[in-house]
Amino acid sequence: MSTATNNVTVITHPLVQHKLTLMRRKDASTNSFRRLLGELSTLMAYEVTRDMPLQDIEIETPLETMTGQVIDGKKLVLVSILRAGNGFLDGMLTVVPGARVGHIGLYRDPATLQPVEYYFKMPSEMEERDIIVVDPMLATGNSAAACVDRLKKLNPRSIKFVCLLAAPEGVATLQKAHPDVPIFTAAIDRELNDHGYILPGLGDAGDRIFGTK
């Protein structure tokens, strides 16, 4: 279940919303937060991969030969924006275990809120691949836009962006920079505070995933 407007899809499935609410609670433990994120990313992956192309293959059932359809998972690349994006990977790979994985390291300068790249590693032959960028939070949108800037230089077939929570400001930033990139999220929250955190949000996703501060 989802609602889509202006290339933004909010995944409204009851299980997604239920688990998101549990994750938002400030007393959720690191263990439960991490487990819920894995479950949520698996559920969201079903919606994000809904339009992935299928190819026909011939197989043998116990009774006869037939033509079935499969996804070519090797053509899919999951790109994690470090470090919090790694919390999304396991759930996504449960759905498409054949996907390749790329990583981009970006940190946000606390003074300017602008992204600074420190790591970039992708599979080969990216021009033949479809990319799903994963990052739990779309806050200012600057890191997401910078990530897509970098990925477009590799000429992939397509790019999607998936996050757990988005702020209206982040959605606007990413759409202005890359209107062709669909955004998938479980919720669009009210606003950003002066420090660039989403309100009401769920705090720092990376710290809550990894138990750091």
TrEMBL record:
Residues given in the record as uracil binding sites: 198, 203-205
Where does the Phosphoribosyltransferase domain start and stop, copy by copy?
Answer: 10-212
EC?
2.4.2.9
Would I find Ligase among this entry's keywords?
no
Q: Which GO terms describe its molecular function?
A: GTP binding; magnesium ion binding; uracil phosphoribosyltransferase activity
Set out the biological process GO terms recorded for this chain's protein.
UMP salvage; uracil salvage
Claim: Glycosyltransferase is one of the keywords in the record: yes
> Family assignment?
Belongs to the UPRTase family.
Q: What the protein does?
A: Catalyzes the conversion of uracil and 5-phospho-alpha-D-ribose 1-diphosphate (PRPP) to UMP and diphosphate.
The molecule here is called Uracil phosphoribosyltransferase
